[in-house]
Design goal:
The complex is a heterodimer.
Chain A lengths: L2 E3 L17 H27 L8 E15 L5 E4 L6 E6 L7 H4 L5 E12 L2 E6 L6 E3 L6 H5 L3 E15 H7 L9 H9 L4 E5 L7 E6 L10 H6 L3 E11 L2 E6 L5 E2 L1
Parallel strand pairs in A: 4-6, 10-12
Antiparallel strand pairs in A: 2-3, 2-5, 3-4, 5-6, 5-7, 8-9, 8-11, 9-10, 11-12, 11-13
Chain B lengths: L11 H28 L8 H29 L10 H24 L6 H7 L12 H17 L3 H7 L1 H9 L1 H13 L2 H4 L4 H30 L4 E2 L2 E6 L8 E5 L5 E7 L2 E6 L13 E3 L2 E3 L6 E2 L16 E2 L1 E4 L2 E4 L13 E2 L6
Antiparallel strand pairs in B: 1-2, 2-11, 3-4, 4-5, 5-9, 5-12, 6-7, 7-8, 10-11
Helix pairs in contact in B: 1-2, 2-3, 2-10, 3-5, 5-8, 6-7
Classes of the chains: A alpha+beta, B alpha+beta.
The complex binds protoporphyrin IX containing FE and FE2/S2 (inorganic) cluster.
Chain lengths: ~260, ~350
C-alpha cells in the first residue's frame, strides 16, 4: 500500500537559523518558557516539601576537643568520660568510614586523653579522632575512676525488635539522612570497616533509639557478608537489651536476623 | 576521513533558548534547596552535600522529561517545532547535571573508605536477586553511561560520521536510560520516603510520556491511512500538481515504509527522500527557501533537482524520477543513489 501525506501548509514556517522567528512562534514560545519555569518551580517546591526530616544528628568537624576518660577496645572502641557531666560513653571512630580498633589496642583498658570532633544525636555521642599522631595520650586515672573502668552491666530483658541495622557514625551525625535504602551502601561500608552497627527501632513517639549491636556474650559483631546484606533493610531481630553503664546495647545472634 | 557537516549556527533564537533553559534549571534547583530548608523542622536539615545531590538528581530527571516530551509535542502541533531546534543543548545539560549528581553520590556514599568507589557502587548492596531490595545505584550508572554516549555524540560531526541510521539507533537508547531511571528513583528515594508523592510523581511522569508517544503514533497512523495513492505502470500517482502548495511538498509513503517528499516550486516538481541527512527530520514538512529544500527541524538545505546541499556543504539525499501527465504527478518508487541529478518535471501551463 502506498500512502500520501499532505503536511498542513504553515503560513510561517519556523526555520531555526533564520534570524527572525515568526511572530506566532515568538508568542507561543514565550508562553512555553514561562510555563516551563513556573511549572518547574512548582514541582521543585512539591518535591522539596515532601521530604521527610533527616533527624537531628550533628557533627561539627571544626571543633576539636580533648576528652579524658577510660579507653576500651571491646566490643567497640569507646571512651567512658565525665567530660560532658555525669558518666557518658562516647564511641570512637576515625574521620573516614573506618574504625579505630587497630590504632587503639595498645591503650585498651587504660586512662587516656583522646582528641577529636564530636558527633551527637540526642543521647548518642561519638568522637571522630584526629588523624595526626597525638590523638591518643595516656593519662593517670582520676579518683572517681572505678565507675569509668568498671561500668554496671544490667539486663533489661529480652525483646524482638523491628527496624533496621544502621551504622552508628552516620546516624549519630556524619550524614543526614543516614538510614534507609539510599544510605544502605554507605552504612554497609562503615560497618564492614569496623564502625559499630546499631539496631534502630522506632518508638511509638517518633524519634527512636539506636542500640549498639553485640554478640550474645557482649563481643563485637563480625561484619560477615550475610550480616552486611541485611544492613538498612527492614529486619526483625530477637535479642537481649543490656545497659553497659549508660550505653544501651542489643545482644543478638547474628544468624537470627530476619528480613521482613 | 570526516564527512563535511553543516554547522548549526548561533542565532538569537538559540541564545534565547539556552537562556530560558538555564533560568528554568536555576529556578528549579533554588526552589528545591530553599524549599527544603523552609519545610524541615529546626535542626533537622539535610546535609548540604546530600541536599545538592538530590537537587541535581531531580533537576536532571525533570529536564529529561522535557527533552522526551518535545518530540511528540512537536508532531502534535507545529508550534512546538522550534523547541526541537536546540534540543541538543537540553540533552547535554541533562547529562552534566546527572553527572554532577553521580559524582557526589559516588564520593559521599561510596567514598571515604578502604574500598574502591566503583567496587562499592556495584557490591555494597548485593541484593540483585530481589526487586524491592535491588541496588538502584547500578541502574543510575547504566543511565548515566547512555546519557554520556548521547551527549558525547550529539554534535553534528558525529551524526555525519556515524551515519544517521546508527546515530538515530544510538539515540533511541535514551528510552532505555529513561526506564532505568524510573526504576532508579522508584527503588531508591521513593522507597526511603514516607510521602507517596515521589512514587506518584515518577509514575505520573511515565504515564504522561507514554501517552504522548502513543497519541502521536496513533494519530500519524490514522492520518497516513486516510489518504491513498494508486500505482500506474510502476509509477505512483501522487495526485494533481495543483494540490501541492507552491514551495511545499506532499509526502508519499511507499510500500516498504520509505517516504518521499514531492515538492512543487517555480512551476516544476521534484522528488527527494523525505529523510533529512542531519537527524532524519521530515523534509516534506519543510519548504523551498531560496530555491532549496529546507528541513523544518534545523534548516539543512538540499537542491531539489539533485538532492545535494549547496557548496561548501556535502550532504546528499536520494532523489526520485518524476513526471507530470495531464497535471497529475507520478513518481518512480525506485530511489536514485543519493545526489543523482533528476530533471524536474514541468507542470504544463505553469512553464512560462
Ligand atoms: C553512577 C550513577 C548514579 C549513582 C551512583 C546515583 C546514586 C543515587 C543515590 C545514592 C540516590 C539517593 C540519594 C539520596 O536521596 O540521598 C539517587 C537518587 C536519585 N537519582 Fe541518582 N545516581 C546515578 C545516576 C543518576 C542519573 C543519570 C540520574 C538522572 C538523570 C539520576 C537521578 C536521580 C534522581 C531523580 C534521584 C532521586 C532524588 C534523590 O534522592 O537524589 N541518578 N541517585
Ligand atoms: S536539519 Fe536537522 S534534521 Fe534536518
Amino acid at each position: 500500500m502506498t500512502r500520501l501525506i499532505r503536511p498542513k501548509p504553515e503560513k510561517d514556517l519556523f526555520i531555526g537559523w533564520a534570524a527572525d522567528t515568526p511572530k506566532v512562534d515568538r508568542r507561543f514560545l514565550f508562553a512555553a518558557a514561562v510555563g516551563l519555569v513556573a511549572g518547574g518551580g512548582g514541582a521543585a517546591w512539591a518535591l522539596a516539601d515532601a521530604q521527610s526530616a533527616p533527624g537531628p544528628g550533628v557533627w561539627d568537624q571544626g571543633l576539636i576537643l580533648d576528652v579524658d576518660g577510660y579507653v576500651v577496645a571491646d566490643p567497640y572502641p569507646l571512651i567512658r568520660t565525665t567530660a560532658f557531666g555525669g558518666v557518658k560513653t562516647v564511641l570512637l571512630s576515625s574521620m573516614t568510614k573506618c574504625g579505630v580498633r587497630d590504632r587503639l589496642e595498645r591503650l585498651d583498658g587504660t586512662f587516656a586523653r583522646i582528641r577529636g570532633s564530636l558527633m551527637q544525636r540526642g543521647p548518642h555521642s561519638m568522637l571522630a579522632v584526629v588523624d595526626d599522631g597525638d590523638w591518643l595520650t595516656p593519662t593517670q586515672g582520676a579518683a572517681a575512676s572505678a565507675e569509668l573502668s568498671n561500668p554496671q552491666v544490667r539486663s533489661l530483658g529480652r525483646a524482638t525488635l523491628r527496624g533496621e541495622i544502621l551504622d552508628t557514625k552516620c546516624w549519630y551525625g556524619a550524614m543526614r539522612p543516614a538510614d534507609g535504602k539510599v544510605h544502605k551502601a554507605c552504612a554497609s561500608l562503615c560497618i564492614r570497616f569496623g564502625l559499630p552497627p546499631a539496631m534502630f527501632a522506632k518508638a511509638a513517639d517518633g524519634e527512636g533509639r539506636a542500640l549498639v549491636m553485640t554478640t550474645p556474650d557482649g563481643g563485637f559483631v563480625t561484619p560477615t557478608e550475610v550480616f552486611l546484606a541485611h544492613v538498612a533493610d527492614p529486619v526483625e531481630v530477637d535479642g537481649e537489651i543490656v545497659l553497659v553503664g549508660d550505653l544501651p546495647t542489643f545482644r543478638v545472634q547474628p544468624t537470627s536476623i530476619r528480613r521482613v | 576521513m570526516a564527512h563535511g557537516y553543516q554547522v548549526v549556527t548561533w542565532t538569537p533564537f538559540k541564545k534565547a533558548y539556552d537562556v530560558v533553559m538555564l533560568i528554568a534549571v536555576g529556578v528549579f534547583m533554588t526552589i528545591f534547596i530553599v524549599g527544603g530548608y523552609m519545610t524541615w523542622p529546626d535542626g533537622e536539615t539535610l546535609h548540604p552535600v546530600q541536599l545538592a545531590l538530590r537537587a541535581l538528581g531531580f533537576t536532571a530527571f525533570t529536564l529529561l522529561h522535557v527533552v522526551l516530551a518535545i518530540g511528540p509535542l512537536s508532531r502534535m502541533s507545529p508550534r512546538f517545532k522550534p523547541l526541537l531546534y536546540n534540543r541538543r543543548h537540553m540533552g547535554v545539560t541533562t547529562f552534566l547535571l546527572a553527572f554532577a549528581h553521580a559524582v557526589l553520590a559516588l564520593l559521599w556514599y561510596h567514598g571515604f573508605s578502604e574500598m574502591n568507589v566503583f567496587v562499592s557502587l556495584f557490591a555494597s548492596n548485593p541484593n540483585y536477586g530481589s526487586i524491592q531490595g535491588f541496588p538502584f545505584e547500578s541502574l543510575g550508572f547504566v543511565a548515566l553511561v547512555i546519557l554520556f554516549l548521547m551527549a558525547a555524540t550529539s554534535h553534528d560531526f558525529w551524526n555525519a560520521n556515524l551515519g544517521p541510521g546508527f546515530w538515530k539507533a544510538l539515540h533511541m537508547l535514551v528510552y532505555v536510560a529513561y526506564a532505568a531511571l524510573v526504576a532508579h528513583v522508584m527503588l531508591g528515594l521513593a522507597q526511603n520516603e514516607k510521602s507517596p508523592l515521589y512514587a506518584y510523581a515518577v509514575g505520573g511522569g511515565a504515564v504522561f510520556l507514554v501517552a504522548l508517544h502513543l497519541i502521536t503514533g496513533v494519530r500519524e497512523c490514522v492520518r497516513d491511512r486516510a489518504l491513498g495513492a494508486a500505482a500506474h505502470d510502476g509509477w505512483i500517482d501522487v495526485g494533481s500538481a495543483a494540490d501541492i502548495p507552491d514551495g511545499r511538498a506532499v509526502i508519499v509513503v511507499l510500500k516498504g515504509g520509505e517516504r518521499v517528499a514531492v515538492f512543487r516550486y517555480d512551476g516544476k516538481v521534484s522528488a527527494v527522500s523525505n529523510v533529512c541527512r542531519h537527524q532524519a527530520g521530515p523534509l516534506g514538512e519543510g519548504c523551498i527557501k531560496d530555491g532549496l529544500v529546507t528541513c523544518p527541524w534545523h534548516g539543512f538545505q538540499y537542491r531539489p533537482d539533485d538532492g545535494r546541499s549547496p557548496p561548501p556543504f556535502t550532504e546528499r539525499i536520494p532523489t526520485y524520477n518524476v513526471k507530470v501527465d495531464n497535471g497529475v504527478v507520478f513518481i518512480d518508487p525506485v530511489a536514485n543513489p543519493a545526489g543523482t541529478p533528476v530533471e524536474p518535471a514541468v507542470v504544463a501551463g505553469a512553464a512560462a
